[in-house]
Design goal:
The structure holds three protein chains of three kinds.
Chain A: H1 20-48, E1 51-52, E2 58-59, H2 65-70, H3 73-106, H4 109-120, H5 127-138, H6 143-150, H7 164-188, H8 192-200, H9 205-216, H10 218-233, H11 237-242, H12 250-259, H13 265-294
Antiparallel strand pairs in A: 1-2
Helix pairs in contact in A: 1-13, 3-7, 3-10, 7-10, 12-13
Chain B: H1 2-17, E1 28-34, H2 40-50, E2 53-59, H3 62-70, E3 78-79, H4 83-91, E4 125-138, H5 149-152, E5 161-163, H6 167-177, H7 187-200, E6 204-207, H8 213-218, E7 223-227, H9 228-237, E8 242-245, E9 251-259, H10 267-277, H11 280-289, H12 297-301, H13 305-309, E10 321-322, H14 330-345
Helix pairs in contact in B: 6-7, 6-14, 7-14
Chain C: H1 2-29, H2 46-53, H3 55-88, H4 94-106, H5 109-123, H6 129-152, H7 157-165, H8 170-198, H9 202-207, H10 215-221, H11 230-255
Helix pairs in contact in C: 2-11, 3-6, 3-8, 4-6, 6-8, 7-8
Classes of the chains: A mainly alpha, B alpha/beta, C mainly alpha.
Chain lengths: ~300, ~350, ~260
């Protein structure tokens, strides 16, 4: 991941080619990746070139019509929308989550674990019930509207549910912990002395923060961004419920091909493969750059 | 931290271990059906009488069922397709013909269920539950008479409508307003439907196939075009507030049936189950839990007056009802049209 | 720094309120009389009573816990090993392997479900706990790996060197120096993996059998009929149990430091 900008060694570790022990240790990982990642990906790839079966399923063959279908503006518009929502969600999660991660990371050992559990426990309840709870909160006769009306802040109930805003709220709710946790583990290893030093040297808290602390935790931030943005691209349920089914994302489209009326598996596979290849290219490029930077 | 974690895991494992045990060795039947469509009491009753343990796996759409079936998954003895899926499966030779001799209770099924285009002689499927897709009106908010799709999709109801999130349904409704039936899904007709949907979709507030009653109960919408089972629950929950109307242009009558897929390991058990479900007193239990229209005329005689009077379960009068057909490759075009217009009308 | 610290503490309070608001509703509605779980009609304990009778529902929770526990353990092992090995060894295929590992995060769940199902059927693996855990681990362990990698970035190599100088063998250095250092990342990853597994729906649907139904499958199945409050009740019971377990272990820990 990103290079440190401090006195720590530039190299990311005593890198050397793996010996036999190294390969043995790597073996389970490689086997797993091949069996459960490569194999399904190959299946999906094969499907993307096949013909559509009448009942769903595929008829073996080779055609490029599925990929032609992907390039259709109807679907490109939805891909773009997914990217925008994922980006907004990631940005909000980052800004909202960083302070929380920082606090937990700098907290006393006895509070740390409790706070961490506190962050996660709400998400051990069923996703569906949690989301329907948001429906109860945001609907016209719901909690928030009743509160606002009572306080006299508004005259008419606000339309909060079944809007893009509701979808963003739901997305941020779902993904915030996945931004907090990786950043927390980066913050936790910050040297208190370093922060003291930054402050001693005359930097105000805001500058100490932005110039010293945030860059030091950049690996955690990068991990958080990865773990929020990528899964957010594929969501289908939160937006379906909170957006009233009006905010279709690429995840919904793909789902439709397999589980909805469309019964068009090859097209779904083509969409999936496109997403996958796009991700792989971007990720590989970013990862390569970071390795290069680390070993200059 | 490791100690904490291992203690928690140990506690969880203990809880997990104190679970209900499985009975091993009994004869089994693999039922693959719609979620929440087969009451536990029926499964328990069947097991008590025959000793056969029923493994009930569920799905939420015909396509889901087909997806798992076509992926070659565990052999199922029974599936529960809707009428147009039965038609498609028969065409693809995926269903076993039923031995009517082993189904003496088949006589309880109403005569009107024979002669339907998807399986006229009920050779491959036995109707389990029937329903319609119709209009629900919140009579407290909507005072004008609503008789059909045209009445629902008016500018004055903008943002107060919930419909099923189903491309085929919505396209069929539009076709009905043009005087065309569910067997008229062609490329030319889809182009005729396009402007209609372009006018309708921006008026919709919520698309929901899973639980459209939620938006109606919440008061977020005042009109809905939903499954009759959902409507029946609304009518039961808030009597007098909601009304169920079958659109005069023509309503979808869906028939969910039990069928035996090819390769079923326990055909004899499957036939026994179908016959068991056809018994009036058993079928009546199903109606009790799921207020759809019971195709079993003997079971209908056993219903309570309240159940029989529910206008959504048993619509009065002689409405225009049509079953869906298998539209084959047109499904992809239908989906694309819907996706396109939905995206353009929404956000 | 104190002012910033206080600001952050207040903000954290706001975020926690945000997290727990729907949970409060969820718990509240577990006492709701109306079966439809949409409007509040009255107070009742019936749903908790139903839980005792509805062995099926409780069993699905047990299945979910078993799967989540197994998934977390395997994910932590694979994720930590993966993160460490990718950091430690330089070889050309490193980027490829890393990208492969993260792919399941982007593959849409439907596709992952269908392709894994086909894989299992082809290989002849019966659907059950094994297949579910395999599918869960496949998309959970990248989360652990990402957290571990972030923690490893900027690790001072002299730490490990010192341990080796003082006579530790490489495995000992790993266990006694690296693992404690990585602990916050491992904990973060484990929490994420456990959470993801507990709530996983689509891939599980494709790779589960009737006997290994998990709670999300059960709950999703009930949407059409109406998510009755017994589902809220079981969620509440689970939260209360977890909070209780954590509080208990914390108490014990403080008694015996």
């Amino acid at each position: 991941m990103r290079q440190e900008t401090t006195g720590f060694t530039a190299a990311a570790g005593p890198q050397r080619p793996p010996g036999t022990a190294g390969w043995l240790l790597l073996a389970p990982l490689i086997l797993w990746a091949v069996a459960f990642v490569v194999a399904p990906a190959v299946i999906m790839l094969g499907y993307s070139f096949a013909h559509r079966g009448t009942l769903g399923g595929v008829v073996p063959g080779f055609t490029l019509e599925n990929y032609a279908g992907v390039a259709d503006p109807v679907y490109l518009r939805i891909v773009w929308r997914s990217i925008v929502y994922a980006a907004i969600t990631t940005a909000i999660c980052l800004v909202a989550g960083y302070p929380v991660a920082y606090l937990i990371g700098r907290a006393d050992a006895r509070w740390r674990n409790l706070l961490l559990m506190g962050v996660m426990v709400p998400f051990w309840t069923s996703f569906l019930i949690r989301t329907y709870a948001w429906v109860t909160i945001l609907k016209s006769e719901g909690l928030l509207n009743s509160l606002f009306l009572q306080l006299g802040m508004i005259g008419q109930p606000l339309e909060m549910l079944y809007t893009p805003g509701a979808v963003v709220v739901g997305l941020v709710y779902t993904f915030l912990p996945f931004m907090i946790l990786p950043i927390y583990s980066s913050v936790e290893k910050l040297d208190g002395a370093l922060i003291e030093a930054a402050l001693d040297l005359g930097a105000g808290p805001m500058r100490a923060f932005s110039r010293v602390i945030v860059p030091l935790t950049s690996p955690g931030i990068a991990a958080g961004v990865l773990l929020v943005f990528v899964p957010a691209l594929g969501i289908y349920a939160v937006n379906d419920i909170l957006g009233g089914g009006r905010v279709d994302m690429i995840g919904n489209i793909i789902e439709n091909q397999f589980k909805g009326n469309a019964r068009n598996w090859p097209f779904g596979a083509a969409l999936g493969t496109t997403l996958l290849v796009a991700f792989a290219l971007v990720y590989a490029w970013v990862s390569r750059r970071q390795r290069e930077l680390a070993f200059r | 931290m490791i100690r904490t974690a291992s203690r928690i895991l140990a506690a969880l494992a203990l809880v997990a271990a104190l679970g209900p045990a499985r009975v091993a060795g009994a004869e089994e039947l693999n039922l693959f059906a719609w979620s929440e469509y087969v009451p536990q009491s029926v499964l328990d009753g069947f097991q008590k009488e025959t000793g056969i343990q029923v493994n009930y796996e569920t799905y939420a759409s015909n396509e889901e069922m087909l997806a798992k079936l076509l992926s070659g998954a565990a052999s199922y003895d029974l599936v529960q397709p809707s009428e147009y899926t039965v038609e498609a499966m028969v065409k693809e030779k995926l269903l076993l013909p039923l031995d009517h001799a082993k189904l003496p209770n088949l006589k309880n099924i109403g005569k009107e269920y024979y002669g339907q285009p998807y399986d006229p002689k009920l050779e491959y499927s036995v109707p389990y539950m029937q329903g319609t897709v119709g209009i629900v009106v919140n009579t407290e908010k909507v005072k004008d008479p609503i008789t059909g799709y045209g009445d629902v999709f008016q500018e004055k109801y903008k943002g107060r409508i919930v419909v099923l999130d189903d491309a085929l349904e919505i396209v069929t409704w539009a076709l009905a307003t043009l005087g065309l039936g569910p067997d008229a899904v062609t490329k030319e007709n889809l182009e005729k439907v396009r402007p209609i949907l372009a006018k309708w979709l921006p008026l919709v507030k919520v698309y929901d196939s899973d639980s459209p009653k939620t938006a109606l109960l919440n008061g977020d919408v005042d009109l809905g075009i939903v499954w009759s089972g959902e409507a029946a629950i609304l009518l039961k929950e808030e009597p007098g507030k909601f009304k169920y109307v079958l659109p005069k242009e023509g309503a979808h009558m869906f028939i969910d049936s039990l069928a035996i897929p090819k390769g079923a390991p326990n055909v004899a058990g499957a036939l026994k189950f179908i016959d068991y479900v056809l018994r009036p007193e058993v079928s009546r239990k199903i109606s009790e839990e799921f207020p759809y229209t019971n195709p079993n005329v003997e079971a209908r005689k056993l219903l309570t007056k309240e159940e029989r009077d529910n206008a959504a379960s048993y619509p009065p009068g002689n409405p225009k009802l049509e079953t869906f057909r298998d539209i084959g490759p047109m499904a992809a075009d239908v989906d694309k049209l819907f996706t396109d217009l939905k995206a353009k009308s929404g956000s | 720094m104190n002012r910033v610290h206080r600001l952050f503490a207040t903000w954290t309070g706001v975020v926690f309120a945000f997290f727990y608001l729907p949970i409060a509703i969820l718990v509240l509605f577990s006492f709701n009389e109306s079966r439809l779980n949409i409007v509040w009609t009255g107070f009742t304990l019936d749903w908790y009573r139903f839980l005792f009778e509805d062995r099926g529902l409780v069993r699905t929770l047990q299945n979910s816990l078993i799967v989540a526990a197994a998934t977390t353990v395997l994910s932590v092992v694979l994720g930590t090993a993966g993160g460490w090995l990718l950091y430690r060894y330089r070889y050309r295929a490193a980027t490829v392997l890393e990208t492969l590992v993260f792919l399941p995060m982007i593959v849409p769940e439907v596709i992952l479900g269908v392709s894994l199902l086909i894989l299992f059927v082809t290989v002849g693996l019966r659907l059950g706990y094994t297949t579910i855990v395999i599918s869960h681990v496949t998309f959970c362990f990248p989360f652990v790996m990402a957290a571990v990698q972030a923690r490893l970035a900027g690790l001072d190599p002299s730490l490990e060197e010192a341990a080796l100088d003082l006579g530790a063998t490489p495995p000992q250095a790993f266990a006694k120096v690296l693992v404690p250092y990585l602990m916050p990342a491992i904990v973060s990853g484990a929490l994420m993996a456990f959470t993801l597994s507990l709530d996983e729906l689509i891939v599980t649907w494709f790779t589960a059998s009737a006997g290994t139904r998990t709670l999300p499958l059960e709950i999703f199945g009930r949407v059409k009929k109406g998510l009755d409050p017994s589902l809220n009740a079981i969620s509440t019971v689970f939260i209360v149990f977890t909070v209780f377990a954590v509080a208990l272990t914390e108490l014990l820990r403080r008694r015996n430091p």
